[in-house]
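Person: At home tonight, work slowly through the protein below, taking as long as you need, and write a paragraph about the fold.
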Amino acid sequence: MLWYLVQHGRALPEDVDPERSLSSEGIKEVGAAARGLKLLGIKPHAIFSSTKKRSIQTAELIASILNFPNEQVVKSDVFRPSGSPEEISKFLKEYSKPAQSILIAGHMPGLQYLADALIGGSNTVAFVNAGVLCIESEGIAFGTGRVLWYIRPEQFELMKD
């Protein structure tokens, strides 16, 4: 199974926007990441997001650029910042559509916990906003994953058609 773990794009401060929508810089970085994923031929079978606005916006912007229907982006609280790998694993095992590749737009430290569980390490990647980590694993089995690549937003911006 291929996992694409994406930390949401940069968000507005809470005192400016209590819902913490993506900032203009965040939209730019997520757009660059999505275009880079498209150039790499990435076509996730499922896209998931937390229920927080910045994560939903990240998932839906990526989905639209990858020609994935926005209405099929699955939003769940299990992908919240404090979401545990065990909760995510249980949720994905109960998800009705089997998927060979999934993209999760989420938050720190939850994404770090999930990556660490999949790989069987700790602090395996230094996530940044709009960065994408690709892990290959044996299904949803913890400790079976290996990092294939990690691309930061500034690297995605260098990719051209």
The longest helix spans residues 24-39. The chain has a mean pLDDT of 95.
